[in-house]
Prior knowledge:
Blueprint: H1 2-5, E1 13-21, H2 23-34, H3 41-55, E2 61-64, E3 67-70, E4 76-82, E5 87-93, H4 101-116, H5 122-131, H6 137-151, E6 169-173, E7 194-198, E8 202-208, E9 211-225, H7 231-245, H8 248-251
Parallel strand pairs: 4-6, 6-7
Antiparallel strand pairs: 1-9, 2-3, 4-5, 7-9, 8-9
Amino acid sequence: MAATLYGPPRDGKIMGTLNVDVTAIDKYIKDQRRQGNKLTLTTFVAVAIGRALAKYPEINCHIRRGRLVPREYIDVMVTVGIKGGAEMAAVRIRDAHEKTASQIAGEIRTMAFESRQGQESKVMQNKYTLTKIPWPIRGWIYKLIRWLVHDLGINLGFMGYLDSAFGSIVLSNIGTIGLTTGFPALLPAAKIPAVINMGKCELKPVVRSKEVVVRLMLPLSATFDHRIVDGLHAGKMASTVARLLAKPEELDQSPR
């Protein structure tokens, strides 16, 4: 019914926020860095999101012709800054639910370096080509590509335009630019159920065992495609991500 009632995500979307205690992860990251293992908070969140999607596969879908289409993979797309932060590139972590935080950290470093050297994926390269096409022809071509790939299911692999081009979900760290909360846009061309933003971590007073203590808190904010995700799904995913982030050692080990 949701797929029938709502149009693309510009019409039907829900938003939510979550504050996660990442004190334990911060300590783990610092301990690992002293041993030469360069981990970041983003790598742990990417693992947690991947494993949460594995637990709730009904979220890992996209819409085609009014019907839910399950994805056969769990890939987390992580955005990274390039050209001195003036532009954004995307790093796709394949099978994120099966990897450790250390493995993902290595992949992000390698692919981010390649993007900064101009070795981006075809779909990212083609976005520059589209910008050179005069308006309004540019808009017509974009809509044609989107219709062929997402509505008809025709994969334009030679151009890099595939149903899977943006993975299962997108993760972005807006804390690096000083923002604590921001509701991301759902890019229609991505065909993903959600985009999640990591905000700026801050020390805050919280209650633990009936006592007020200071903890490092990470704000997460997300926008969901309401045709796929409702409040119940979002709540289940949020609680799972929070629970996983409370145990950084497990996120840095292969899942059993």
